[in-house]
Structures
1.
Amino acid sequence: MTRKYLIAGNWKLNAGGPNGVELAGAVAQATREVAPNVELVVAPPFTALAAVAHELEEKRVEVAGQNLYPKDSGAFTGEISAPMLLEAGCRWVILGHSERRQLFGETDALVHDKVAAAMRAGLCPIACIGETLEEREANRTLEVVFRQLDAFSAELNKRPGYGVIAYEPVWAIGTGKVATPEQAQEVHAAIRKRLNDLNPTLAQGTRILYGGSVKADNASVLLACPDIDGALVGGASLDAEGFAKIAKAAPR
Ligand code: 13P
């Protein structure tokens, strides 16, 4: 099974409002020549979602939320549901990002519920996993990554090939310290093997993105690895040209 590459830009707490619309327009423009075997996604803050989705109508760049709440509606002040993201024009949602886990106390169980809610609603989850520096140094990388993965992999297996996994080592996020292609490939291959134990079709169909200080100048060596199917890009996704260069680094 051939997997298309997926290059997703996580804007985090940046480019809300008019800036976001401008950035989305620039991304659509800059990525026009990206090869057809690459899918493109941007994840703006909630307040910019509808306007960005409108700006990207008829364009190849699709829109993701950065989070959701597992309930569809009700007394949950401050939260946004999967159906609301769909209504705002999203087809994707980033879930379980390490910033959500570390700063907002998200547990594996909550991430499971979020992945399940996204799949139920027809929103494609980009579920994030990854170890901290302390965990890597204690040789616990795979133990941690498998624990996080096992929490939601049965949900992904309900529709093999639909959901996406992002491996983002926490020590590489926003630090400029990118994992070497060997380090990344090793974990990606281990993740795919873990999926294979559950269902070979799931393992072959699931895209596993790498995230953590991906830039135009390191993207091609990472994307050339056999088990790296794309990138989840933070800082560099705020520059349309840089983001487009990353997307153009995917092998054809
Ligand atoms: P940076 O690309 O800024 O390191 O962020 C990675 C990330 O967290 C994407 O979700």
2.
Amino acid sequence: MQLAQPQRVFFALWPDAEAAARLHALAQEQHQRMNGRVSREDSLHCTLVFIGNIDAGRLPDLQAAAAGIQLSGFRLTFDQAGCWRHNQIAYLGMRQIPEALQHLQSLLVKRLKSAGFNTEQREYRPHLTLLRKAECTGATKENPAPEPVGWAVRDFVLVRSSLSVNGSRYEQIGQWPLL
Ligand code: ATP
Ligand code: MG
């Protein structure tokens, strides 16, 4: 019998091409001050719910939990910039989490819990990682972003993360539309 490989997966919101290009340019700008490693343009994302390692056999249950969600799309704007010293991440965040995002995130968590998945206990902090191993300088509090960047969220995705020599590689393995 062949044993199923564990898969490291998470749900996320993916920027459209225009937003990803602007975010990548911003990341390169920040890199000049904070060094570290710039996120790949095609890897930029906002995690919705991190699942972690699961058995491949459980993927259909995960997909079923996501498929039951019927919510409207919304506009997402990242207007704050910050740097977390504890994990050396320079990120964009938002002053206020839109109700529609909070709602999508908590409904997904609720459905995942009902399906028996473990989810993150900490408060949801939506963010886009621009740099890893960043040298956070000065105050660590958030400041207004040099320019707000956002996109119209029309779907959410399930992503598989695998480790490669150049860091984590992501592959979308599911996509569900918002109405
Ligand atoms: P790397 O770990 O190679 O630096 P990464 O953190 O982007 O890259 P993963 O560790 O696979 O890759 O994480 C995928 C996504 O899930 C990232 O957005 C990451 O911030 C988020 N994430 C990882 N671990 C957790 C966790 N324990 N709780 C919440 N989110 C997490
Ligand atoms: Mg990680």
3.
Amino acid sequence: MTAQPKYIILLGPPASGKGTQAAIIRDTLALPHVASGDLFRYNLRNQTELGLKAKTYMDRGALVPDDLTIAMVLDRLAQPDCAKGALLDGFPRTIAQAEALGVALAEQGRGINRVINILVPDEVLIARITGRRLCRTCGEPYHLLFKQPQVAGVCDLDGGELYQRDDDNEDTARNRLQVYWNQTSPLVAYYRERGLLVDLDGNCPIDQVTQALVAALADL
Ligand code: AMP
Ligand code: ZN
């Protein structure tokens, strides 16, 4: 028997731990991790037209326009490995994106199974963002204080070089939080009204968040 496709959304402000948790649980869930920010960074590395367009927004901490973002993510969800569903991270970020996703899934007789709302206070987020480092090869996230690699500057998984994202400086971080509160936080009520939302305390150690997350998805 083939399992029903599952769509899980990780919602939460920048640096609330969406990417870190997704990387930990994607294998357990056997779902591909679809992160819109990673898709934009991939396009940028490959100097695609989409990547270059997106960069002007990303550098300011603004959202990339909905039409570009929606087309990119729906295209990713149409790839064969997403036939079983996806663990969505960083998408949707606006009501328009949520509506477009809902329509696209409904056309296939599918729908969102659960939305996890990760809660972390703003001051904690700023500290997390400015200390964040990523692997250039695999994108694995690290942190100068909270999640150090075994060897400074080197990825534990593949020896890749760790770097700081251009948009992980304090000014841009504050913009991104503002954008989150203005444009993305309305999704909390949107999904709560639809009975899909579960709140999760993201201001505790990584493994504790993972445990709570796994428990919040156990019945799916
Ligand atoms: P992230 O890696 O999720 O923090 O995303 C990095 C940047 O990519 C954001 O600050 C936005 O500029 C852009 N971005 C990622 N996901 C979206 C989205 N769903 N809608 C619009 N812009 C996005
Ligand atoms: Zn790596």
4.
Amino acid sequence: MRFCLNVDHIATLRNARGETQPDPVTFALLAEQYGVDGVVVHLREDRRHINERDLRLLRELVTTKLDLEMAAVEDIIEIACDVQPELATIVPEKRLELTTEGGINVIDNLEHLRSTIERLHNSGISVSLFIEPDINQIDAAAEINSDFIELHTGVYSNAETEDEEFDELERIRQAAKHAKKLGMGVNAGHGLNYKNMKQFAALENIDEVSIGHSVIARAVMVGVEQAVNEMLTIIQQYEIK
Ligand code: PXP
């Protein structure tokens, strides 16, 4: 299972003072040196964390893989086609949300997403759709030629009882298996942390996890190297080889 690090919250910290530090680009490059498999950023309409300068620098400097989370809106699609990340992950975006609140409804937005995927493909960019672990949504993603899905793990991460956690993990397990059968790659993310990754890392059919807040929060306390290493160690220790 690959581990991609979302560095948006380094930019959040920088933006709190409108200064240049801490720099999300420097942070991402350090994280790469310590072993992450890719760098993830979400260019939001309100630019509340990373901005275009960060994105373009990351494009020049990231040597692993750049995953751009983005809403399927015109100006961001144009930026994506120009910047050429290895992967564009399409997410729903609400202006007032604190963070992405759930998966995109592929079924309700089928034709718009189909044409967005086609445009990104024509620019040579692979596409992932951030969706709930729901079989109908997965079928719709395959129908419009998505290369990957990213399963929303928010319900799993927020589970309050062991039963709830078990049920959601099972739903994710079945969803990942189904997506693989349809030929798509499977990523996952949202709310994954040093505790809930132990069980999660043992799931089959998940190619990649996208983790931000927990690792950034840990890095503030213990440094980038240790925060990244601790997550890599959990994945290596618990994944089924
Ligand atoms: N995947 C997607 C699509 C997201 O929107 C986010 C949050 O930016 C993440 C993964 C990472 O979530 P977290 O910061 O809770 O680890």
